[in-house]
């Protein structure tokens, strides 16, 4: 390919001519081997990617309940809201949702921790936390029995 002035050939064709000439002299692009590109990477090791499904939204759950029970979506959404409010009120005394699990209020003791940046010891005060314990039936249904 002969080099011609940019006025006649245009900027894009000039770039193409330049890179075509460069590939003749550059050892990294000879024989189809190009470095720092996808073609030169080693693909012998399979990469495992976990594709996570999107969680159901409140309206999708309400629609499924409405379809199964033969009620309106609005009523099903109201039932979900009522169930959540009931769980909030009764979590102090342990709220159980049969077949799913239970909400438990746990008292954590005070403890000594470390600041990861400085390594200095700090005192972490006692506090109450809410935990959800998954029911055995739910574990078996999701993970399968061994």
Helix content: 25-40%
Summarize the helix and strand pattern as letters: HHHHEEEEEH
Please indicate the count of domains: 3
| Distance between the first and last residues' Cα | 69 Å
CATH topology name of the largest domain, in short, is HU Protein, Chain A
Secondary-structure topology with pairs:
Layout: H1 6-9, H2 11-25, H3 58-69, H4 73-90, E1 95-97, E2 101-108, E3 111-114, E4 121-124, E5 127-134, H5 136-143
Antiparallel strand pairs: 1-2, 2-5, 3-4
Helix pairs in contact: 3-4
Describe this structure as you would to a colleague.
This protein has 146 residues and is of the alpha+beta class. It has three domains: 6-40, no CATH class; 55-91; 94-146, IHF-like DNA-binding proteins (HU Protein, Chain A). Helix content is 39%, strand content 18%. It is built from five helices and five strands, in the order ααααβββββα. The chain has helices spanning 6-9, 11-25, 58-69, 73-90, 136-143, and strands at residues 95-97, 101-108, 111-114, 121-124, 127-134. The strands form two sheets. A three-stranded antiparallel beta sheet has the order 1-2-5. Strands 3-4 form a two-stranded antiparallel sheet. Strand 3 and strand 4 form a beta hairpin. Helix 3 (58-69) crosses helix 4 (73-90). The radius of gyration is 32 Å and the shape is flat. The chain starts with 5 loop residues before the first helix and ends with a helix. The mean pLDDT is 80.
């Amino acid at each position: 390919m002969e080099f011609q002035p940019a006025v006649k050939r245009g900027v894009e064709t000039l770039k193409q001519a330049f890179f075509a000439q460069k590939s003749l002299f550059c050892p990294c692009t000879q024989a189809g081997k190009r470095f720092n590109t996808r073609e030169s990477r080693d693909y012998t090791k399979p990469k495992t990617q976990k594709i996570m499904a999107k969680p159901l939204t409140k309206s999708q759950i309400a629609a499924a309940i409405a379809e199964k029970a033969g009620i309106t979506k609005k009523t099903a959404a109201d039932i979900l809201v009522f169930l959540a409010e009931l769980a909030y009120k009764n979590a102090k005394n342990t709220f159980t949702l049969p077949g799913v699990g239970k909400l438990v209020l746990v008292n954590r003791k005070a403890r000594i921790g470390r600041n990861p940046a400085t390594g200095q010891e700090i005192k972490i005060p006692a506090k109450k936390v809410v935990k959800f314990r998954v029911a055995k039936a739910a574990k078996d249904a999701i993970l399968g029995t061994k």
